[in-house]
Specification:
This protein has 10 helices and no strands. The chain is elongated. 74% of the residues lie in helices and 0% in strands. It has one domain: Alpha Horseshoe (Serine Threonine Protein Phosphatase 5, Tetratricopeptide repeat), CATH 1.25.40. By secondary structure, the protein is an all-alpha fold. The N and C termini lie far apart (51 Å).
């Protein structure tokens, strides 16, 4: 779209963050519906067929506790070419879709969606890919693989023991090599 629209979407999300910190459980549903209405109004400004619309709506449904409503919208955004419009938002959509799929009992599909991201171009979302993939794996009873991903993601951030932690992470899934 344009920078003005993106700035207004960012401002809407900043409002949600403030609301989420102060909302009580009893007022959350009404506030969540109001927030989704703000996003829907912004989406209505987009040209027909824009992948940004279903992406922002999916994020709003997801953030308000409705993974079941978010998943089809993430799929729609990706099918409309979100990754071509914004590689960053496309990657976010894959991470968030995988999380939603896990939440609705489809963790295997989440694993299939995120596994290729491990070999994709690196960016600031790498650790989120690994964290979400680890959760999907854990939901499938593949805890050692998930722990390996999380430790591997953590290792570079440690002030010491980076090499040891990375080796331990590999040893969890390749025990015969270590």
């Amino acid at each position: 779209m344009n920078q003005d629209w993106e700035d207004r979407v960012t401002a809407a999300w900043a409002t949600f963050d403030e609301f989420a910190e102060t909302a009580s459980d009893s007022s959350f549903d009404a506030g969540a519906a109001d927030f989704r209405a703000v996003i829907d109004a912004l989406v209505a400004e987009l040209p027909d067929g824009s992948p940004l619309g279903p992406f922002e709506q999916a994020c709003a449904w997801d953030s308000t506790g409705h993974s079941d409503k978010a998943a089809p919208l993430y799929r729609e955004a990706l099918a409309r070419g979100l990754s071509d419009v914004s590689g960053y938002k496309g990657r976010r959509a894959k991470i968030q879709l995988s999380s939603s799929l896990r939440n609705i009992g489809q963790a295997e599909e989440g694993v299939k969606l995120l596994t290729p991201e491990l070999d994709g171009p690196s960016d600031e979302l790498d650790d989120a890919v690994r964290g979400c993939l680890a959760l999907c794996l854990s939901s499938l009873g593949r805890d050692r693989e998930g722990l390996s991903l999380v430790l591997g993601a953590l290792a570079p951030h440690l002030p010491r023991y980076q090499r040891s932690m990375a080796n331990y992470a590999r040893a969890l899934v390749e025990p015969d090599r270590h």
